[in-house]
Amino acid sequence: MKIAVCIKQVPGTTQVEVDPETGTLKRDGVESKLNPYDLYALETALRLKEELGAEVVALTMGPPQAEAILREAFMMGADDAVLVSDRRFAGADVLATSYAISQALRAAGPFDLVICGRQTTDGDTAQVGAELAEFLGIPHVANVVRVVRANRAELTLVCDLPLELQTVALPLPALICVEKSIGEPRLPSYRLKLATAELPIRKLSLADLPDSDEKHYGLNGSPTQVIRIFPPETDGMRERWDGPAAEIARRLGEYLFTHKFLQQPR
Fold it and tell me: By CB count within 10 A, which of 177, 194, 197, 228 is most buried?
């Protein structure tokens, strides 16, 4: 069984500049980290590896420095890693990103299972997983909170829907997007860091993909364009209230209702 885990390097700070021409984040020289939601995807794959003897491949699309998070995946227990990197992928919207990753999965696969985290902290669209599955032509399930049973042909999963929990039988190959409640990620291992320090990372560029038409990637392949993007405004104003707890609670309630943070009960 071969499992791909899609991970992403995201800014490790909120102080990120925006390119005024393309509307995209300026990532060069910015402190970065492994997307927190992807840690849960990795943990899910590693538990399946322990149960079924699967091979876990971490895959990311990004600039050359994204190799750092693939090394972190090795330290958690991944067996192989793929870096998808090409300047022609830059500026991709969700659709172009999903298409590029789907092509990379085809080039690096085949895979029995693809696992994604719920979303990334820099985009927050939660759309890449579903679009990946559509491009790959495989079934998918989102909001997965538990793997009930697993074998090499099928997974039985529990999904957290808005009003209920749903149990789903999913035939493989397939893709799943997992929630943070699926299980606490393990810590990176120093022993694995030493053992995997020399492991090669496979690198794929546009020329290595089944579809190498650059019109389908990056800004060229993005049907949506960002009109304006900006960091949220911050206000350093502070107000301190002193007095009995009951009086402070009353004032706080009035403030929240007045400023529409809460609605008055009907």
Answer: 177
Q: What is the pLDDT of residues 205-214, one digit of tens each?
A: 999 999 999 9
Q: Where are the domains of the chain?
A: 2-216
Q: What is the number of alpha carbons within 13 Å of residue 109 lying toward its C-beta?
A: 22
pLDDT of amino acid 18: 64
d(CA 64, CA 52): 32
Which CATH superfamily includes the segment(s) 2-216?
HUPs (3.40.50.620)
In sequence order, which residues have a C-beta less than 8 Å from that of residue 48 and are 6 or more positions away? 1, 3, 54, 113, 147, 150
Give the model's confidence band at 3: pLDDT under 50 very low, under 70 low, under 90 confident, else very high.
very high
Q: What is the arithmetic mean of pLDDT over 163-192?
A: 93
Question: Which element (helix H / strand E) includes 241?
Answer: none
131 alpha carbon, distance to own chain's centre: 13
* The residue type at 57: V
Residues contacting residue 160 through CB under 8 Å, at least 6 positions apart = 143, 145, 179, 181
Inform me whether the pLDDT recorded for 218 exceeds 70: yes
Tokens of 10: 């995201």
| Burial (CB count <10 Å: 0-12, 13-18, 19+), residue 61 | buried
Would residue 79 be called left, alpha or beta, if left means φ above 0 and alpha means ψ between -120 and 50 degrees? alpha
* Type of residue at 135: F
- The CA-atom distances, in angstroms, between 97 and each of 83, 104, 128, 156, 158 are 14, 11, 8, 29, 28
